[in-house]
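Below: protein 1.
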Amino acid sequence: MFVSGNFKYMTTKYFIDIEQFSLTKYRKILEKSELLPGRRILYEKTKERFDFLTQYGITNLLMLVQSLKSPDKIKQLAKDTGIPTDYLIILKREVNRLLPKPVSIADFPDIDKSFIAKLNKKGIKNTLQLFERCDNKKKRTAFAQETDVPISVLEELTKLSDLSRIWGVGPIFCRIFYETGTDTIKKVANAKAKKLYDQLMETNRTKKYTKAKFTVKDVALCIDIANDLPKTIDI
């Protein structure tokens, strides 16, 4: 277990196993990402700086997260590798995006509030909690009886929770993915970027979920991330 911000992450089937996620693989993902303007410093000498990290002995994301988890550790890493402190601070922020906090169930569009209230009474308020209770048919059947939430709703929320595990996909985009029929991590992993992009655009144009812009490159990155996530739900 390790800590990122105020949230504890474990290498469980909900998250990417960052101990098995190589630094080289992450560098390649970073180089393909559409970074926010404030994070584009990470495009500077990317391979050279990641080579310095590897030479220092950091070979996977777990080791990187641990090396960046406090200001003192960042300063020490900067001193030992020659990588600018500002670069490492931004790198820490970007790496943390790969392990997003679970999404509040209430933030998904088009979910009946009465069902959300019933789940809240059972202590199920976010996607991690729901995922752990509903990731297979037997669990969902039992939980439907326990909560009086229809199993069809639990299946929908399980799929949305599954999609929320993709880096950068918030509750609105989970809904858009779901509406295209590409409604699980496994389906995203097997999708073709341009075809899925067109489906997402058409769904959003019709249902007007968001004005946020996204590109084929963004969708391709989602597919890459989906391929590295455990595909564990039984629907």
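Below: protein 2.
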Amino acid sequence: MTDSEKTVRCWLVERSSFGDERMVTLVYATPEGERHLKKQLSTNLLMKKRVTAAIDVEPERLEPVDDADRERYATEAQRMADNHDPDSEV
């Protein structure tokens, strides 16, 4: 939990684009890789919005991570935490 104890710090672990819709999916995960939040943004919106290394998320917005992705998300979250300040633009 963060200082407020009302949110959980999540780190950017995946960014992917897809389709003719020109959409980008950002995945932020908890440090242990057990829960995540997906955000889908248009490329136009993404150009106007800051994408940071980490965000603080209300626990009820987080979803469980598939077992197949858990270790990868935990590894990437740790890498992001080691190399970036939470508010760093990435």
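The chain has two helices and five strands.
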